[in-house]
Amino acid sequence: MNKKEIAEIKKQFDADRCSITKICGCYVNHDKQIKTELEQAFLALPQEEMFKYFNIFKGTLSGTLGKNLINMEFPLDTEEEGGTQEFLMRLRKSALKDMDLVHEFYQKIIDNYNYGENYYIILVHAAYDVPGRARDGMEMDDASDTVYSHILCSICPVNLAKSALCYNEERNSIEERIRDWVVDAPAHGFLFPAFNERTTDIHGLLYYSKNPETLQLEFIDQMLGCGQPLTSKGQKEAFHTIIEETLGDNCDFATVKSIHENLQEIMTENQDSPAPVLFEKNDVKRLLAVSGASDEQLEEFDSCFEESVDEKAVFAAANVVNTRSFDIRTPDVTVKVSPDKTHLIETRVIDGRTCLVIEVSEAVEVNGINIRSFIQDGSD
Question: What is the CB neighbour count within 10 angstroms for residue 326?
Fold first, then answer.
């Protein structure tokens, strides 16, 4: 799914557009025991509650693609009878009317979700009548020819409200506030099936994690069956390892700078695209080739890649390139340069020593003081 498709689904979380047919939920305590459950037609909820749920659902589809939101595909075996995808298909087809299936869903989460505190599982079914679109992109509500039937799961921590003083109007006094258990914003969740090219894609789903470094890998593997994706930090570390190992002892400044510049150019060219820029194995190899890696170095690429990650691993460009600065670090000095100004830095050997040389053509400040000259009076 891309940003436009995600935004289209999020627009349905509104009282005037709502396509949610039913909501189910269960509150799980720290001992993994279900304390209470919810089963109701969504539109029968009080309006105040409905809006709070809308905020939770929007939160489950928020964040950065490739970091907080991850497109996942099901292996073929999960679509067979008894597989994770096949189970989710049955759950969706039931429109949450089969409570035995819903309870089985709850138990699967409880068994595989690693969280030692209280949390609230929310599961909704929706049937979105996808409007057609004219050539100019305008929606035509009367031209719909498909219904996107889907389920959305949100897992929200439930925490005790902070202790505080409050004003009690009845007693006209300042006193300690009653501490309630509050449902927080979702920590994890998923949308199934995926909504790709504005239609149903039963072979994929969209996974959400509030913290991109805590993806709940066991949950993804056992509950969803989509394997264990690399976190954004894991992608960056693996990408750097592949570059370093492939270039070997000849991992020089010029090649690494060229890789950064080429990545930056690709990101700029695709900045208006709703889909994230992704690199598969061959894309990474091609990037190395155009950045100056030799044929001899590229011969090492395949083995370096397979030693670092799965052969089918995909890197999001936003996770492996720093779009804010080009950083050069030594044990004693750190230099940060605007990504589009890397041409101002080069390496030279001066008096037998390797040096970083930075071109200075504009105003320079040192600790907030404007410098007018780098050369002291009387120097050679």
Answer: 22
Residue 39 above 70 pLDDT?
yes
CB 159 within 8 A of CB 184: yes
207: left (phi over 0), alpha (psi -120 to 50) or beta: beta
Q: Residue 347 in contact with residue 357, Cβ under 8 Å?
A: yes
| Tens-place pLDDT, residues 69-123 | 999 999 999 999 999 999 999 999 999 999 999 999 999 999 999 999 999 999 9
CA atoms within 13 A on the CB side of 345: 20
Tell me the pLDDT tens digit for each residue of 123-159.
Answer: 999 999 999 876 666 666 665 679 999 999 999 999 9
Q: In degrees rounded to 5, what are phi and psi of residue 131?
A: -75, 150
Per DSSP, the residues of 242-255 read HHHHHHGGG--HHH
pTM: 0.84
Residue matched to tokens 């627009």 = 11
Burial 259-292 (b: 16+ CB within 10 A, else e): bbbbbbebeeeeeeeeebbebebeebbebbeebb
H and E: helices and strands count for the chain: 11, 22
Contact between 173 and 75 (Cβ < 8 Å): no
Contact in structure between 124 and 151 (CB atoms under 8 Å): yes
- The pLDDT tens digits of the residues spanning 230-282 come to 899 999 999 999 999 999 988 888 888 899 989 988 988 998 888 889 999 99
Q: For residue 153, what are its two tokens?
A: 């799961």
Mean pLDDT, rounded, for 3-29: 95
Distance CA 195, CA 76 (A): 19
Distance CA 350, CA 357 (A): 10
Place of tokens 């080069």: 346
In eight-state DSSP terms, residue 162 is P
Q: What's the one-letter identity of residue 232?
A: S
